[in-house]
Amino acid sequence: MSYIRHTPRASTAVRRLPPGFGVGAHHHDDHQIVYAGRGVLSVTTDAGSWIAPATSALWIPAGTVHEPRAWGETDLHTVGLPATVNPLGLDRPAVLTVGPLLRELILEYTRDPTDASPERRRLLRVLLDRLRHSPQRPIHLPTARDPRLAAVCALLFEDPTDRRTLAALGTAVGASERTLARLFRAELGMTFPQWRTQLRLHRALLLLAEGMPVTAVAHRCGWASASAFIDVFRRTLGHTPGARNPGNSG
């Protein structure tokens, strides 16, 4: 993030993005609610990466330097809010559950950004009310700071199928298992197995967006079987990886 662009306002909009489309590091004066009606969107900051499929939306607070990227054909819906309006009370990005009602509210609100009617203002109030009741999804992949921890994370980024224990990985980077376990909790707020599962889920979402079959994704990301992958995916995201239009389910 060597060059940071300042975009004054996070305007409400809907855009169709090609696979791999990305924007360099920038920030907005306003908050953003970003929803991919189709495809998958990731956002990276100095603190880590967040990724949202069609059952989720990204909350990006005002002033947050971030780099978004689309995976697969992506229909991007953005709702900009003044910095004084923070319905979630969050000061860092988050992934929020988008159920059928919230999905339809976002799609309708972004349909015509030029509409300044009282009806549309009421629609926004309902949208924000539903957003307040949206659970957060635990699919944040935090960034390591300590060089020893970063080295372990880099090994797994390169090969998510690497099944070495933390002790074996520690030997490879010159750190003890105890030290690394402490660093995972202190820096990343999770255990080593939890972080590795997050990494695999992130990689799986990107491969699914590119059209890779579920079984192939499971093996490419390090799960012993497709059923094990589907179980973790369902428990984390609330639907199976093979669901065609999860944004309209449940």
Describe this structure in words.
There is one protein chain. This protein folds into two domains: 5-132, Sandwich (Jelly Rolls); 144-248, Arc Repressor Mutant, subunit A. The protein has eight helices and nine strands. The protein has helices at 100-109, 118-132, 147-158, 166-173, 177-188, 192-209, 214-220, 226-237, and strands at 5-7, 13-17, 26-28, 31-45, 48-52, 56-60, 67-81, 94-97, 140-142. Helix 3 packs across helix 4 (166-173) and helix 7 (214-220) packs across helix 8 (226-237). It starts with a strand and ends in a 13-residue tail after the last helix. Residues 244-250 have low confidence and may be disordered.
Q: Nutshell version of this structure?
A:
This protein is an alpha+beta fold.
What layout of secondary structure does this protein have?
Blueprint: E1 5-7, E2 13-17, E3 26-28, E4 31-45, E5 48-52, E6 56-60, E7 67-81, E8 94-97, H1 100-109, H2 118-132, E9 140-142, H3 147-158, H4 166-173, H5 177-188, H6 192-209, H7 214-220, H8 226-237
Parallel strand pairs: 1-3
Antiparallel strand pairs: 2-7, 4-5, 4-6, 4-7, 5-9, 6-8
Helix pairs in contact: 1-2, 3-4, 4-5, 7-8
> What is the general shape?
globular
The secondary-structure element order is EEEEEEEEHHEHHHHHH
Do you know the CATH architecture of the largest domain? Sandwich
- The beta-strand count equals 9
Q: Tell me the number of structural domains.
A: 2
**Mean of residue pLDDT?**
88
What tags apply to this protein structure?
alpha+beta; Jelly Rolls; two-stranded parallel ribbon; about 250 residues; disordered C terminus; about 40% helix; Arc Repressor Mutant, subunit A
